[in-house]
Specification:
Radius of gyration: 18 Å
Order of helices and strands: HHHHHHHHH
Largest sheet: none
Helix content: over 70%
Number of helices: 9
CATH class of the domain at 75-148: Mainly Alpha
Distance between the termini: 45 Å
CATH superfamily of the domain at 75-148: Tetratricopeptide repeat domain
Strand content: under 5%
CATH architecture of the domain at 75-148: Alpha Horseshoe
Number of strands: 0
Shape: elongated
CATH topology of the domain at 75-148: Serine Threonine Protein Phosphatase 5, Tetratricopeptide repeat
Structural class: mainly alpha
């Protein structure tokens, strides 16, 4: 941590230094400090990785609304970033927003049509909506892709 503090002291406008220190704070379980450093990294250079990392931390802490916002920002920066759709879909699912989760899983399937996890997750959301035939088709596709 001394090196991170020194790097930030010497170059307080370094987004990467704040980002790296946030990762260190995270690994130490100092989540509030990590969030503050991700915030500063984003202020200095709003990029995909900082939004995604902060979103994952919010998700881990059960702050699904904040996680969804961060994943949405990541998607705005790069609409082809499939992992952001995956994680935002998960967060929507956790909030029982299954139709929104399905939209994100649809986009994930569009970007990664051979991803069994995407079909399985969408199947879970369909099941929650009582759309069992559609859920079963997705579960079957996930199993087929997984066996390949």
């Amino acid at each position: 941590m001394r090196e991170y503090h020194e790097a930030i002291r010497l170059k307080p406008d370094s987004a990467i230094a704040f980002y790296d220190r946030a990762i260190a704070y995270y690994s130490m379980g100092l989540f509030d400090n990590a969030i503050k450093d991700y915030d500063q990294s984003i202020r200095l250079n709003p990029d995909n990785s900082a939004y995604m990392a902060r979103g994952m931390l919010h998700y881990k802490l059960g702050r699904h609304d904040q996680a969804i916002q961060d994943y949405a920002q990541s998607i705005l920066l790069n609409s082809e970033y499939d992992y952001a759709y995956r994680l935002r879909g998960d967060a929507y699912y956790k909030k029982d927003l299954h139709k929104r989760a399905i939209r994100d899983f649809n986009e994930l399937i569009h970007l990664r049509p051979r991803d069994p996890w995407a079909y399985f997750s969408r199947g879970l959301a369909f099941r929650e909506l009582g759309l069992h035939d559609r859920a079963n088709r997705d579960f079957d596709e996930a199993a087929r892709l997984k066996s390949n």
